Amino acid sequence: MMRHLLSTRDLDREQAIGILDVAEDMAQTQHREVRKLPTLRGKTVVNLFFEDSTRTRISFEAAAKRLSADVINFQAKGSSVSKGESLKDTAQTLQAMGADAVVIRHSASGAPQTLANSGWITAGILNAGDGTHEHPTQALLDAFTIRKRLHGDASRGHDLDGLNVAIVGDVLHSRVARSNVWLLDTLGARVTLVSPPTLLPVDTSGWPVEIGYDLDEALATRPDVVMMLRIQAERMHAAFFPNAREYARRWGLDDVRVGRLDPDTIVMHPGPMNRGLEISAGAADSPRSTVREQVANGVSLRMAALYLLLSGDREDTE
Amino acid sequence: MSTRIVLQQADIGRALTRISHEILESNRGPDDLVILGIPTRGAVLGRRVAHLISDIAGTPVESGALDVTMYRDDLDRNPTRSPAPTQIPVSGVDGKVVVLVDDVLYSGRTIRAALDALGDVGRPRVVRLATLIDRGHRELPIRPDFVGKNLPSAQSERIYVRLDETDGVENVTIEGEDA
After folding, report:
1. Between B75, B83, B120, which is nearest A25 by CB?
2. Residue A18 with chain B: CB contacts under 8 Å
3. pTM listed for this prediction
């Protein structure tokens, strides 16, 4: 079915729902006595992380191990990359070691695409976040989580038609936001980006979104989902807002704003959270928060992605 | 290419009724029975067998579906399969008499996968196998306990089971060069 998973923009509605449905099946197996499936026995999954990440790497590692694949973790820090090895040489090394799938995180937008199209390596490529481009499995697990809250065990086959989603915060640096914009649009949801003007990309004219600059205005339209983004201080080399307190006051989801939400509006955050900055502790720990569900669902979703990439006759599919 | 109908709707009904009686007979009643169908069509047949046994015995027997996709040994050789939901009765399968139900028994590899999948769900006391069609050509030491119809076939022939719930029509056909 799929050769690589590089961005959510490439997915059509049917493919996206297909991945979410397989993730449902994977989630179901995680309640069993034995949670490990033999499906990818003998396959090797390499986690190739050029950027720091704990939760995404652990999530992919857990997913691969639950499917019985062998996992090799490759951290760029302290590795041959810090000695100056190029992406090409790294890829060819992994190819020589017989990697079947490469989960890559890289600070350069498009690095996974390069790896997939280069011919350096025949493995399936999974984008685990590239620069400020995309983070497709995060968006898919977010969609999965929304669907699960709406439909429970009867989620299979459903899209997110007619849902109002507000994505709030540091859109400029967020690959999570970009992946979500495309996927939510494909699944039929309406997306509003809410952010200080300085934290929006220069040109969003091609994006299927509405833009707002005022959080209270956006929340007054009673969105079904409020997705908070992390302020990515590590990518900010200029002053995008006067100070943290002002940001929290104007764009943070604090206890007062949470209290005004509709009872069934859900609050999401991809983590890690800056408590007290973009989201208050009260909001993060409230019953409407899906933060912990997102982490649990992430493993099921990544199992689905690895299964769809690694099963099937790869030579015949393309 | 020729197509021959080997079972009509009424034949399928009779075969399932007989299998249901045989299951009850061999188990000496409905106690501890759990009927698990293998998706897609085995799950449909499993539901029907469970209904029939419940009717005959006058007491409901537990049933469900057991997806084996993730346990197959041929995932690399075929296009990607989409898994189907597994439904196990809430009381589980530990210590129960599980009857696996499939539509066509051929190489036996699906059943091998089913046994592995079942092992991850629990530990039944006994596992039995019921199949609507046994077409032979086993590649593993697996044999059915209850068979609707033995259908000797050439490996070049194809056997199609169609059921109301999944296909809108109901019959079993065999297709081959000159069947």
Report:
1. B83
2. 82
3. 0.88
